[in-house]
Design a protein that fits this description.
Blueprint (H helix, E strand, L loop, with lengths): L1 E6 L7 H16 L2 E5 L4 H5 L2 E3 L2 H4 L23 H11 L4 E6 L1 H12 L4 E5 L15 H22 L2 E6 L6 H9 L4 E3 L7 H13 L5 E5 L11 E6 L5 E3 L2 H13 L3 E5 L11 H19 L5 E6 L2 E6 H6 L6 H8 L4
Parallel strand pairs: 1-2, 1-4, 4-5, 5-12, 6-8, 6-11, 7-8
Antiparallel strand pairs: 2-3, 9-10, 12-13
Helix pairs in contact: 1-10, 6-7, 8-9
Bound molecules: 6-O-phosphono-beta-D-fructofuranose.
């Protein structure tokens, strides 16, 4: 068989581990040939390919990013884009694709499958907000980066008796804020799932200082004040209709300082959370997902995606990944709140 592989959407640690696992197992067990499509759906749309064999995947297990490049190109938003992708893939003699990506990338995969092109999906996002999988790879690495940052920020905040607002990724779901904040001993965690009251945030900051603690507030980039809206860093949207978030930490820090009189600074962790080498957990998860994805492709299980269920890797319909996002349940937030001063 000839299989095309692509990675779409925001990059995340572990993408290369998936590619490596699929190529190595596919080559060794079935003798498959592979084509790498460059930059997400842009690759099959514009016929941009690269060689992808055993030599190309050697040594990439620990490497962050993606050797195939990524983009947020959406063929479904381009006139005739879906037909063009299908035509190009068929003309290249490719039997089917493995698409590694988040809900946008897998949404396109689903449309292609419905139009007769075989695609197996591998769920990816550091936000961990994809339904039908217990964890996405990249999330654990991001959480560890947040935790290490909070460990460092606590000492400087304490030395200067300052409050710090730390902005982390998480567009619709606060998983990174919740897990990073819990692991790093945050004094308040703000997530997109529950709008926050500025007055309550300020009261929490005052309580922390009264208890002798320089508070660290972890805020998801998608956290929203009551009677307010998401803070965005630019105008306009990408090809999938998403605004570019960013700025909630600075917005909050200014108001906290103004209303409490305590010096408050902001830190945006941004793409630090997505870069660099994956943790052991993410390497193993990504490898197992790639291992299972090539098996699914070999058996013609198109229209499915690999998922983690408990400790097992299973197959689920692509529709499960894209139909609704997995958000932080209220009781998980309540657990974290017990530890705020
Ligand atoms: O979708 C994952 C994510 O990391 C979001 O948390 C974030 O809003 C977005 O990607 C940022 O994407 P980009 O790097 O394309 O601006």
């Amino acid at each position: 068989m000839k299989i095309g592989v692509l990675t779409g959407g925001g990059d995340c640690p572990g993408l290369n581990a998936v590619i490596r696992a699929a190529v190595l197992r596919g080559h060794r067990e079935w003798g498959h040939e592979f084509t790498g499509y460059l930059d997400g759906w842009k690759g099959p749309l514009e016929n941009q390919t690269t060689g992808l064999g055993v030599a190309e995947v050697r040594g990439i297990l620990a490497q962050g990013g993606t050797i195939l490049g990524s983009s947020r190109t959406n063929p479904d938003a381009i006139d005739g884009g879906i037909e063009q992708v299908i035509g190009n893939v068929r003309a290249a003699g490719i039997d089917g694709l493995i698409a590694i990506g988040g809900d946008d990338t897998l949404g396109v995969a689903r449309i292609l499958t419905e139009n007769g092109l075989g695609v197996v999906g591998v769920p990816k996002t550091i936000d961990n907000d994809l339904n039908a999988t217990d964890y996405t790879f990249g999330f654990d690495t991001a959480v560890n980066i947040v935790m290490e940052s909070l460990d460092r920020l606590h000492t400087t905040a304490t030395s200067h008796h300052r409050a710090l607002v730390v902005e982390v990724m998480g567009r619709h779901a606060g998983w990174i804020a919740l897990h990073g904040g819990m692991a790093g001993g945050a004094d308040l965690i703000l997530v997109p799932e529950e709008e926050f009251e500025l007055e309550e945030v300020c009261a929490q900051v005052n309580r922390s200082f009264e208890a002798g603690v320089a508070p660290i507030i972890v805020a998801s980039e998608g956290a929203v004040p009551k009677e307010g809206s998401e803070v965005t860093s630019t105008e306009g949207t990408d090809a999938f209709g998403h605004v570019r978030l960013g700025g909630i930490a600075g917005w909050l820090a200014d108001r906290i300082e103004e209303q409490t009189g305590h010096e408050t600074r902001s830190v945006v962790l941004g793409h630090l959370q997505r870069g660099g080498t994956p943790t052991a957990f993410d390497r193993v998860l990504a490898t197992r997902l790639g291992y299972r994805a090539i098996e699914a492709a070999s058996e013609g299980d198109w229209g499915t995606m690999t998922t983690l269920r408990g400790t097992s890797i299973e197959l689920a319909p692509l529709a499960d990944a894209v139909d609704e996002s997995k958000v932080v349940p209220a009781d998980r937030l309540r657990e974290a709140q017990v530890f705020f001063d």
